[in-house]
Amino acid sequence: MKRGIGGFPRSAVLLLLCAAVIAAGFTGCRERRDNHFIIATDTVFAPFVFQNAQGEFVGIDMGILAAVAEDQGFTYELISVGFHAALAAVESGQADGVIAGMSITEERRNRFDFSQPYFDSGVVMAISAGNFDITGYEDLRGRTVAVKTGTEGSRFAESIQGQFGFQLVYFDESPFMYEAVRAGHAVALFEDYPVVTFGIHQGSGLKIVTDMERGSSFGFAVRRGQNAELLRMFDEGLANIMADSTYRAILDRYISTE
Fold it and tell me: Whole-angstrom Cα distance, residue 47 to residue 61?
C-alpha cells in the first residue's frame, strides 16, 4: 500500500486534503483561467503567514506573493490548509504552487521545483521566559524538547539529539509547540529565528538562549516538472521587487531590525 503523510494511506491523505480544500471554498474540478493560479499556504507560521484581526492572511510570504503577482500581472486564489496539506495540494494538482516558509532541501527537490530563495533563515532554541535552568544544549539531557514536524527546526534538533540526550515531541502547528513549552510539557523548542523573534515581540512568553544555527533558504515551489511559467514569473517578479524598495519594506514590516 502506498503511504502518505504521517504513515496514512495516500488515498486517505488526498481525501482529507480535498475536504480541507472544499471547506476553504474550492473544489478539485476547477476551471483554469490564463494567468490565474491556486496558491497553497500554511495556516499559521508568523511572521511569514498568519491572520490579522480582520481575518486577512498577512505576513512576509503573503506580502511577497502579492507584490510578485502585481509585478507580473497574474492573479491567484489562496488556500490555507496547513503546511503538509499545502505540499500535498501541489503534488496532487489541487494547487499550482506553495509559499509557506518552506525550506529548500535536496529531498524536496525530488518532488518540487523551487524559485530563487526569497529568505535565508536559521534555527534557534527558545525556552519559557521564566526558565533560568536551561542555558544551552547541554542542559537538555533527559528532558523533552518540542519541534514542529517537517521543519528546519525539527531536522536540526534530530541532528543533535543523540549528542545531547533529549527526547522529542512533535507538533503540527507552531502555537501548540509554544504552549507545550509555556505549560512545562517541554523545556525548549527549536524554530526558525524570525518566527521566534516575532512571537516574542507579540508576547509569546518565550526567550532565545542560543545563537542562531545556520539554516536553509526559503523558496516558492511548484510540482516538479509542472507550472514552469508560474515559477518563471515568480523569479522575475522577485528579482524586480528585490531591486527596488518593495522587498525591504515587506521584511521591515514584520521583522524587527533592533
Answer: 8
Query: Are the C-beta atoms of 218 and 118 separated by less than 8 Å?
Result: yes
Task: Give me the DSSP letters along 41-87.
Answer: E-S-BTTTBEE-TTS-EESHHHHHHHHHHHHHT-EEEEEE--HHHHH
Beta carbons of 159 and 137 less than 8 angstroms apart: no
Task: Give the residues across from 78 on adjacent strands.
Answer: 39
Task: Give the integer Cα–Cα distance in Å for 57 and 114.
Answer: 22
d(CA 120, CA 122): 7
Supply 98's cell numbers. 506553495
CATH topology of domain 121-215: D-Maltodextrin-Binding Protein; domain 2 (3.40.190)
Rg (CA), the chain: 19
> Do residues 210 and 27 touch, judged by C-beta distance below 8 A?
no
**Residues forming CATH 3.40.190.10 domain(s) in the chain:** 5-118+219-254, 121-215
Walking along the chain (258 residues) 10 residues at a time, the average pLDDT comes out as 38 44 44 82 92 94 98 97 94 97 92 97 95 96 95 93 98 91 97 90 93 90 97 98 96 75
- Greatest Cα pair distance in the chain: 57
CATH superfamily assigned to domain 5-118+219-254: Periplasmic binding protein-like II (3.40.190.10)
Helices (H), the chain: 10-23, 60-72, 83-92, 106-109, 152-164, 174-182, 193-201, 228-243, 246-254
Does pTM surpass 0.85?
no
- 7 phi-psi bin (left φ>0, alpha ψ -120 to 50, beta other): left
